Amino acid sequence: MGQECQKCKAYSVKEEFDIKNMDEELGDESPDVEQSFLDEEDEVKKHNRPPCLDNYKRGRMLGKEECYDQNDPKLSATIENKEMALTEEQRGEEIILADGSRYQGNVVDGKANGKGKLWLNNGDIYEGDIINNIIQGNGVYYYNRGPIYSGQFLNGKSEGIGKEMWPDGSIYEGQFKNGKKQGQGLYKWSQGCIYEGEWCENMIHGQGRYEWSDGRCYQGNWNKNQMHGRGKYLWKDGKYYDGEYEYDKKCGFGIFVWADGKQYQGYWFDGKQHGKGLMINKEGKKKFGEWVNGKLISCSEETNVQIIPEGWINKA
């Protein structure tokens, strides 16, 4: 524990204000989600990063563990049935495109135009609208080693509203731009986590809400898949942190409230109490103190202390 002032030392352990619990070091390594201090480890159990197609190359896409199992009878049946359905429905012309891809469907002036199906030379399959040999309009794209995308296309890339279904069962529904998740969208991971909010270039970015499968949730600002800016983080037992973050760590001003009503109002750095702070027990008794790297180093009995920045409540 950090050094305490003489006034703090005079407090009995039986008094309402539990200095010990307020003075624990908030180490990232502690796994105890029921601890009475600030569950930093619980908070940094990393939220999932959404998969994307940024590293996609012709004929090669994702790692083996994220590929479709070509021996999966359920998946194989889905693709085969789709192919059979198209063959029965559309018996248009068949042409070979400049890159070696094979197209079957409507052909106008020697080019793929209208509804059809495209077998790309990298193993991908597309079914839907095509204009002058370019995927454009509405359709379904089956990545050979990746997701199935169903939705709108522009100039050969997903753009507009669409749905992306990944091999592990994860699903994204929302807006796309230039082939990437951009705008508003909802992502559901196969593990049970959910994010709904803003996206930018396949990353969680802007305002949004992330829910963990164990009951935790965070609502607030994001920057490139990290909690960054003002936000509110809630635990399943009722405690919460309402404050500022920098790159997944509490940083700036914030208020931490325990399930029994006691709270800390003050400043943070790198996920730990750092700077001036006000401790309030569940009966409303106050102590003003100074923290360094998560340790209480001094405190006083000042009661007329206003530590919440002006306009803070209205910014929530």
Describe the main β-sheet briefly.
19 strands, antiparallel
Helix fraction, binned, reads: under 10%
Low-confidence stretches: 1-39, 55-89
Average pLDDT taken over every residue = 78
Rg, nearest Å: 27 Å
Q: What is the 3D form?
A: rod-shaped
Strand content: over 45%
Q: How would you spell out the order of helices and strands? A: HHHHEEEEEEEEEEEEEEEEEEE
Number of helices: 4
Q: What is the CA-CA span between the terminal residues?
A: 33 Å
Class computed from helices, strands and strand pairing: mainly beta
- How many E-type strands? 19
How would you describe the overall organization of this protein?
The longest helix has 17 residues, at 73-89. The protein is built from four helices and 19 strands. Helix content is 9%, strand content 46%. The chain has helices spanning 6-9, 19-23, 40-43, 73-89; strands at residues 93-96, 102-108, 111-119, 125-131, 134-142, 148-154, 157-165, 171-177, 180-188, 194-200, 203-211, 217-223, 226-234, 240-246, 249-257, 263-269, 272-280, 286-292, 295-300. Strand 2 and strand 3 (111-119) form a beta hairpin. The relative contact order is 0.12. The protein has a 19-stranded antiparallel sheet. Mean pLDDT is 78; it is low at 1-39 and 55-89. The protein is mainly beta and 316 residues long.
